[in-house]
Amino acid sequence: MEIWCFGYFCATIPDADVLMFDLGYSYGHWLGHRGFFHSIFFAFIFGFIIKSLFYRGFKLTSATGFMIFLGFSLITVSHGVLDAMTT
């Protein structure tokens, strides 16, 4: 159950960038919507954070630890890929 919740969270977290509008960043700014938080770089950082915080029992260098990191990273990337298919 826990892994499904983290997967859902990873898939939706890039849209938290709409909060940047309240901080005065425009849509076209690199911190605006579909900017940094929709990037592959952010997805790998976020996958690493989720793995490091909630799956500390698995070293990143182990096969299981790397697959956890990669899985959450790819789930996060999927948001940007699907967004790129919309207008």
Write the layout of secondary structure elements.
Blueprint: H1 2-12, H2 19-22, H3 40-54, H4 63-84
Helix pairs in contact: 1-4, 3-4
What level of helicity do the residues show? Answer: 55-70%
**What is the quaternary state of this protein?**
single chain
The topology string of helices and strands comes to HHHH
Percentage beta strand: under 5%
Average pLDDT? 93
Radius of gyration: 14 Å
Span from first to last CA? 33 Å
Q: Which secondary-structure class do the elements indicate?
A: mainly alpha
* Major beta-sheet overview: none
Separate helix tally:
4
Kindly state the number of beta strands.
0
Global geometry: elongated
Can you tell me the residue ranges where pLDDT is under 50 for at least 5 consecutive residues?
A: none
Task: Give a description of the structure.
This protein is mainly α. Helices cover 60% and strands 0% of the residues. It contains 4 helices and no strands. The chain has helices spanning 2-12, 19-22, 40-54, 63-84. The termini are far apart. The mean pLDDT is 93.
